[in-house]
Amino acid sequence: MGTWDTGPFDNDTAADFANTPDNAEPEACEALIRGVLIRTIDATGYLAEADEAVAAAALIAAQCPEGEPVDTPYGPATPMPVFPTGLRALADEALARIAGDESGPASHWVAQEDWKQWRAMLTRLRAVLAPPPPSFALFDVQP
User: Cα separation of 142 and 42, whole Å?
Assistant: First the structure.
């Protein structure tokens, strides 16, 4: 597998995955994204679709407040449909699973600095995907 940088689409597998939504009908795009996230969350042992799940999470994060647009030549060429907010939690859970897999995608980089940058990218995505805190008081405690 070719890996050339530490972004969510910067390897052959993730870049190939980015073509999948381009070739799908808009209503099928959500199912593709949801499927790769759920398979990654539910996987036992080797996370076969980790690179695709990172790319899928980046597509979801791009639609979130504070999300970075997908403007790499390796990302999808067509605009993505608006994803339901429920996908954010799935994407975050998939990224947590990937981040905890020391023998997974992190092992693609020989240089420790690259590995650290890749992990920082996962952390940034997770911060964007995290649900916002409630804007109202949960309990009104009186002294």
Answer: 44
